[in-house]
Specification:
By secondary structure, this protein is α/β, with parallel strands linked by helices. The chain is built from 15 helices and 12 strands. α3 crosses α5 and α10 packs across α11.
């Protein structure tokens, strides 16, 4: 069992495992939310050897009695620190508790703080620690730039300029709304872009990520959901359109470039009011960089853009079709129509009463109103 914090990471782990599983004739499957559980349940009932899962959906299936972990021999927890950041550790703890105590457990994490150390103490006994590098250390092949701009208008043009190159680039935004808005803006400017954030359905995420990975579009506008677990080769430029609030997020975002030994550039766009916070963030991240005041036509900007890609005419947007307004035949609709004049305006209450042959006093409980008498057939 392999646990991953996001659907994207779970999908990519499963794709990497699939050829190995096929070679050993092992059945594997992916479990995550955002889609119907029916296919996942069907696969579980047929029996699987390997599952790659996100904690939320896996726990849902456990509560329904559809999956049992008492025979799991090996448990892998990937990006445990990101699990902690997302608040998944209580669920992860319950899941690990359901696995056999004598099974093998492996935990991968950039840091061992924020509750990850408690997981290690509870579930990994006599553990062997493998440290690849200093926690959160910046990549040597990565070149960092801070571009200071005078106002939001200059920033807007600078973003379009940096996105206009021929290579892949990822632009990071702080909110889902702004990510969606920027992707649309760039596409309208002839720079094909897709967005990636938590408001998208799983099919939309898969479709947008596939378009970026295949090169159908060269710009991905994302929130921090894509800072982890999205592994796309040859991303030459990462742009922090909105600087993150913490240094770990800066390093994880920046880590989408300069992968597998290749070089890459990271640009942070800074407005005057952001200078102090950005300086503190870079210091905590261990990044030494001299800020540079730029315009979209500065030589350093032009050098990063490189060759400008050809203009791509945006596809025409299809306006949503309005449903034809027919005449409802329901009783409620008929009553409403009966209480309107020929122009469609409401008829006053008195006139409604006149049309129905009743006095308005009977509805209002007037003082002189006589109580109505029920008429009973004789002999009863």
């Amino acid at each position: 069992m392999i646990l991953a914090p996001t659907r994207e990471l779970a999908t990519q782990i499963a794709a990497t495992l699939q050829p190995l599983a096929d070679a050993y004739k092992l059945r594997s499957m992916t479990i995550f939310g955002g889609v119907s559980q029916n296919r996942q349940v069907e696969a579980l009932r047929n029996g699987v050897d390997i599952i790659v899962a996100t904690p939320g959906r896996l726990e849902d299936l456990m509560k329904q009695g559809l999956v049992h972990l008492d025979s799991v021999q090996i448990t892998v927890l990937d990006e445990a620190d990101h699990m902690a950041d997302l608040g998944f550790l209580p669920g992860v703890t319950r899941i690990l508790t359901a696995t056999p105590r004598n099974g093998q457990r492996m935990l991968f994490s950039a840091t061992l703080d924020n509750g990850v150390d408690k997981l290690v103490a509870k579930f990994l006994h006599n553990e062997i620690l493998h440290s690849v590098d200093e926690a959160n250390s910046p990549v040597v092949q990565m070149t960092h730039h801070v571009f200071e701009v005078e106002d939001a208008e200059v920033k807007k043009v600078l973003i379009e300029t940096l996105a206009s190159g021929t290579g892949r680039r990822i632009l990071f935004m702080r909110t889902k709304h702004h990510a969606k808005k920027l992707a649309k803006l760039l596409t309208d400017k002839g720079i094909p872009a897709v967005d990636l954030h938590g408001n998208l359905s799983q099919p939309q995420r898969d479709r947008n990520l596939a378009a970026f990975s295949s090169g159908a579009v060269r710009v991905l506008v994302a929130t921090d959901v894509a800072a982890r677990g999205v592994h796309v080769d040859d991303v030459e430029l990462v742009i922090h359109v909105d600087p993150p609030t913490e240094h770990k997020a800066y390093l994880h975002r920046s880590g989408r470039t300069a992968r597998a030994g290749s070089a890459g550039d990271v640009v942070t766009i800074c407005l005057p009011a952001q200078k102090k916070d950005l300086r503190d963030l870079l210091r905590k991240a261990g990044i030494t960089v001299t800020p540079e005041a730029v315009t979209p036509k500065s030589a350093s900007v032009t050098a990063l853009v490189g060759d400008v890609a050809e203009y791509v005419k945006p596809a025409p947007r299809v306006a949503p079709q309005q449903q034809p307004r027919g005449t409802s035949t329901g009783a409620n609709a008929q009553r409403k129509r009966a209480n309107r004049d020929r122009s469609g305006r409401p008829i006053s209450e008195n006139k409604v009463a006149e049309r129905s042959g009743q006095s308005n006093n009977n509805f209002r409980g007037a003082r002189n109103a006589q109580p109505t008498r029920s008429i009973r057939p004789q002999g009863r």
